[in-house]
Amino acid sequence: MTVQIFPSLRDVGKTKGLCGTLTNDCKDDFLKSDGTHFTNGDTARECNTLGLTDYSFQPDEFSFSWRVDEGNNLFKEEPTFDGNHWGANKQLCICRKDTNNVDGDEYIDCSSSSIVTCNREEEVKTPQTCSSFLKKTWSAPIIRRSRSKRSPYITSQELDKSVAWTEAEAIEQCRLFMDKSASFKLCKDVPNVDPTIAINTCVLDILLTNSTQWMINAREGIKGKCLAEVRVNATLQNETESGGASIAEIVKNASCINDCLERGRCENGSCICDDGYGGGDCGIDLSIPPIIYGMIDSGLCDQSLVPCTEAYIEGDGFTSEGRPNCRIKKFQISLIGSLQIENQSVDRKGDPSTLMTMFCPISSSTAKVKQSVQEPPFITGYRISVSNDGLNFGEEEDMFIFNSTYQDFTVVDGKYQFSLKSGFCFIDGDPYLEGTVSSFDVCRVCLPGKSLTEWSSRADPECRVVLKSETTSGLGTGAITGIVIGGAVAIILVSGLILWKYKSARPKRFNSKVSMHGLDNETAVTMQRDA
């Protein structure tokens, strides 16, 4: 990873140590991290008297004093932190008045004792709102996966040099490289801008690294100083050549980041990239998919907190040039863990909000998954890959939509396993709290102790007939009802047959009484003769 720090105009004269050159005083350039100074014969001289040879010395004591110790190294595989954590809530820095300053200047305070909890929602696209973050009752696990390291970024062309560069060769190479830049040529004539500084820095980088990959940094550094000068120099803003644009306007219009890496043209200070390239400096090859680090919350989205209508992809190399697309395939997981994946995927236009983030719309993105088994879906998810050109897609990432009200998850061997929380039933694809009565049958109720996926019978007196029938037959409500009705009809027919035969044999008058004592008791038929 290359980290570049670009100071603003307000930083001039206010830096020390590693960035001390902005004060134009070499003595504070060598301030060590502990507040003491590194001194020797070279550091005592004024900056403008140091030449290329003077810069070649290596102040190791000064350099090593700024090295980050392992305990606070954020770029380790599994970084540790030896300070006090600030808690899980999103927090904001605050502005304070400097009571020690007579002018009462304000300063930003980000210390752990001064931060405040986020209490407002911004009108911008964000993966989560502050309110949803604060309501969150679960923590996303860290799941490490091996990922492709192919980068879409175009690196500076490296000259093949198997032997060490000489100073003469380095000077010649740097001059040729700088003179290829139209903006560098214009900056040569800007007051207070010395192009030899860029040449010397370029040469020193080559000699120290035996590489040409840092040449572009030296050129961009002098261009930055040139642009800062034309912004504050009123004379350059007013002067014109042949009644045309001012010198400041000409310089700004010709100054594009990295000179568009020779893969585009510079117009009004912005790069117009050639086909197949994108980014602010045309430094992204659109045919190579962006680097994907994962999704926010490790791919989990809690429907009890947010709508879950977009996937928030984290990575590097996203750009709005070309055709940023998301390829989405829906899948479903049943309560017993069976996976059903949609055969077809759909492409949706992605929204690359920054170089490192992209939003993918997933609401109503695909048709329903065809049910190959009887279990209803317990978890719905989306398998998502992204592209900068709409043709070449990268690795897939899974997004799982769940509801923390009644669903829980664990991670086993780097994979999610979802389960139903205690006190809930999951019947016909819907969750029910223990004790919930079925809206279709008042004698049915959610009893997780008896069944997680089916309605259980109530033991109330009015439901005892149904309960008795269930116990003896094990059949459903519809089957039991049919048996009861059929049994009643059979009893009536049998009774009628008996009466008919009795009348045929004994033609005397008589009365009959039929008693049915419950569905499971025998039917008692009592005959009383009327003498």
Spatial separation of the terminal alpha carbons: 113 Å
Please mark out the parts with pLDDT under 50 across 5 or more consecutive residues, or reply none: 50-55, 85-90, 114-124, 128-134, 466-474, 507-531
Tell the overall outline. Answer: elongated
**Number of distinct beta strands:** 26
> What percent strand?
15-25%
Calculate Rg over CA atoms.
39 Å
Helix content: 10-25%
Look at the helices and sheets and give the structural class.
alpha+beta
Number of helices: 11
Q: What does the average pLDDT come to?
A: 75
Structure explained in plain terms:
With 531 residues, the protein is α+β, with helices and mostly antiparallel strands. The protein folds into five domains: 1-66, no CATH class; 147-285, no CATH class; 323-418, no CATH class; 424-478, no CATH class; 482-529. The chain has eleven helices and 26 strands. The chain has helices at residues 26-29, 60-65, 130-135, 167-179, 182-187, 195-209, 215-232, 234-238, 247-254, 464-473, 477-505, and strands spanning 91-92, 94-97, 106-109, 116-117, 264-267, 270-273, 277-278, 284-285, 291-295, 300-302, 310-316, 325-334, 339-341, 346-349, 351-354, 357-361, 377-387, 397-402, 407-412, 415-420, 424-427, 430-433, 444-445, 456-457, 510-515, 524-529. Strands 10, 12, 13, 14, 17 and 18 form a six-stranded mixed sheet that branches. Strands 9-11-16-15 form a four-stranded antiparallel sheet, with no helix packed on it. Strand 5 and strand 6 (270-273) form a beta hairpin. The protein is elongated, with a radius of gyration of 39 Å. The model is unreliable at 50-55, 85-90, 114-124, 128-134, 466-474 and 507-531 (pLDDT under 50).
